[in-house]
């Protein structure tokens, strides 16, 4: 299995649960769980962008932004693109995107998707 996104700019935190304690998530996770928690939408406008260039013509670009959409509904979006030749002369194009929308539910609840 692989991580379903390009880089870690859209990640808030990563939890690692080792051993049989992870059985709480299901019967087929005896070895452990890696839980990747993405950044939640927020009311305040936020944004980030990065561009990098590396060995073997490796190029990466990332843009993320979010804020208030309407009323108590907030959003967050990330777009990632990478291209490179690699040390084996394999052209690798990668593209990923993420969109999240969320809203306050009651005084203590928050629902996002």
TrEMBL record:
GO molecular function: siderophore uptake transmembrane transporter activity
First and last residue of the signal peptide: none
Keyword Iron attached: yes
InterPro entries cross-referenced by the UniProt entry: Beta-barrel_TonB_sf, TonB-dep_rcpt-like
GO cellular component: cell outer membrane
Keywords per UniProt: Cell outer membrane, Ion transport, Iron, Iron transport, Membrane, Receptor, Signal, Transmembrane, Transmembrane beta strand, Transport
Family, as annotated: Belongs to the TonB-dependent receptor family.
Name of the molecule in the record: TonB-dependent receptor
């Amino acid at each position: 299995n692989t991580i379903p996104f390009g880089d870690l700019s859209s990640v808030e935190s990563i939890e690692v649960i080792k051993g049989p304690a992870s059985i709480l998530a299901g019967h087929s996770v005896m070895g452990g769980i890696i839980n990747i928690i993405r950044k939640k939408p927020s009311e305040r406008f936020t944004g980030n962008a990065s561009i990098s260039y590396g060995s073997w013509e490796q190029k990466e670009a990332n843009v993320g932004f979010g804020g208030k959409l309407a009323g108590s509904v907030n959003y967050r979006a990330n777009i990632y693109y990478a291209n490179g030749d690699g040390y084996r002369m394999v052209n690798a194009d990668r593209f990923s995107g993420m969109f999240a929308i969320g809203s306050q539910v009651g005084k203590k609840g928050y629902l996002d998707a």
